[in-house]
Design brief:
mainly alpha, Nitrile Hydratase, Chain A, 2 domains, two-stranded parallel sheet, 11 helices, globular
């Protein structure tokens, strides 16, 4: 990470180059229609992406009973809103409070809750993020623009193939008159990973 919190991606890895070559070959041979992969990517970014998680968060902010169910059983409660399946079959939701800030990482690879957050950001998969978030979370969060009070505890959750995490950010003040849809518009992907407060 740079001093301004911007991440400069590394050159494509060997596996990324192989994936690009395979994609080109499948398209060239007519096995995958031209533009299909881009369309799937666009759908994850625009339709299946973080707006699903934002709807979950907004519902928890306006419905205390839903929030209790969500924190007790994330998978079932998220499914109530129609989200689930592969990469989200065992979801745990952790709540930010005045005393605790939660952040998610996958130290082994890049396990990520696709049904509620869409495509993972490139920095989530990078070894520096994965290593530093465990060793020095407060410093890394500050570099990413999420400065936390010194007295606030930081809990780091390690996603895996068995369980994926979603952060429930704190509802901002002065939002009492907002609709659920308006509240969902305030929620960012980064806040549901825990690298931002909202």
């Amino acid at each position: 990470m740079s001093e301004h919190g911007h991440h400069h991606p590394a050159p494509p890895s060997a596996i990324e180059r192989r994936v690009a070559a395979l994609e080109a070959l499948l398209t060239e041979r007519g096995l995958v229609p031209d533009g299909f992969i881009e369309d799937v990517t666009r759908r994850y970014e625009a339709e299946i992406g973080p707006m699903n998680g934002a709807r979950v968060v907004a519902r928890a902010w306006v419905d205390p009973d839903y929030k209790m169910r969500l924190l007790a059983n994330g998978t079932t409660s998220i499914a109530e809103l129609g989200f689930g399946g592969s990469e989200g079959s065992n979801m745990v939701v952790v709540e930010n409070t005045d005393a605790v800030h939660n952040v998610v990482v996958c130290t082994l690879c890049s396990c990520y809750p696709w049904p509620v957050l869409g495509l993972p950001p490139s920095w989530y998969k990078d070894p520096p993020y994965r290593a530093r978030m465990v060793r020095e979370p407060r410093k890394l969060l500050a570099e990413m623009g999420c400065e936390l009070p010194a007295e606030m505890e930081i809990q780091v959750w390690d996603s895996s193939a068995e369980v994926r995490y979603l952060v429930l950010p704190q509802r901002p003040g002065e939002t009492d008159g907002m609709t659920e849809a308006e509240l969902a518009g305030l929620v960012t992907r980064d806040s549901m990973i825990g690298v931002a407060r909202l």
